[in-house]
Amino acid sequence: MADERFPGWHGTTIIGVRRGGKVVVAGDGQVSLGQTVIKGTARKVRRLSPGGRDVVVGFAGSTADAFTLLERLEKKLEAAPGQLMRACVELAKDWRTDKYLQKLEAMLIVTDGRTLLVVTGAGDVLEPEHDVAAIGSGGNFALAAARGLMETGMDAEEIARKAMAIAADICVYTNGNLTVETIDG
Question: Helix 84-97 and helix 63-79: axis angle, to 10°?
């Protein structure tokens, strides 16, 4: 994601794959400024445990903005324990209507192992088709690769890793330094 104050900044690639009672969220580690890699080992996939219930979140876009959203999401999950969809809808409402939050530039993939969602600042809370979601600079490459790999006998982690490797081969804003989190459904 780019921003007029920081032209040329590019984020990351995040993928979520649900298969065989598990959801895997994987993210690369690259942050680029124009044609320069600023950091190759950023960690953009996190495990949260609000109220003792695990949730895995991957984010693309501004890191500070994403952390602000993660804090808000944790509060929403604490207010609605075990209700991921409700918490994400409440977050999206706030994000869409709050003047401060409207300026945040990030996207999230969120899962509790049962539900897989993409949350955006446009007020979207999307449950992806085909049990695959992807966001970020190389998201479309990873999504296409994973959708094709869903036809194989590979498990969720194998699909996520292979799709990210394919995206890293195609997208100059994606690398192979992965953070991978798995959560049971």
Answer: 130
Half-sphere exposure of 29 (CA within 13 A, CB side): 10
Alpha helices in 3-111 (DSSP H): 63-79, 84-97
pTM of the full predicted structure?
0.91
Closest CA to 84 of 125, 45, 121: 125
Query: 165 is written with which tokens?
Result: 């490797």
Structure tokens at 97: 């209507």
Burial of 141 (0-12, 13-18, 19+ CB in 10 A): buried
Task: Give per-residue pLDDT as tens, 8-43.
Answer: 555 689 999 999 999 999 999 998 887 888 899 999
Is residue 120 annotated as a catalytic residue, yes or no? no
Round to whole Å and give the CA distance between 177 and 111. Answer: 22
**Tens digits of residue pLDDT in 111-166:** 999 999 999 888 899 999 999 999 999 999 999 999 999 999 999 999 999 999 99
Among the listed residues 12, 13, 111, 174, the single catalytic one is: 12
Q: Spell out the long-range contacts of 126-129 with Cβ–Cβ below 8 A and sequence spacing 24 or more.
A: 128/16
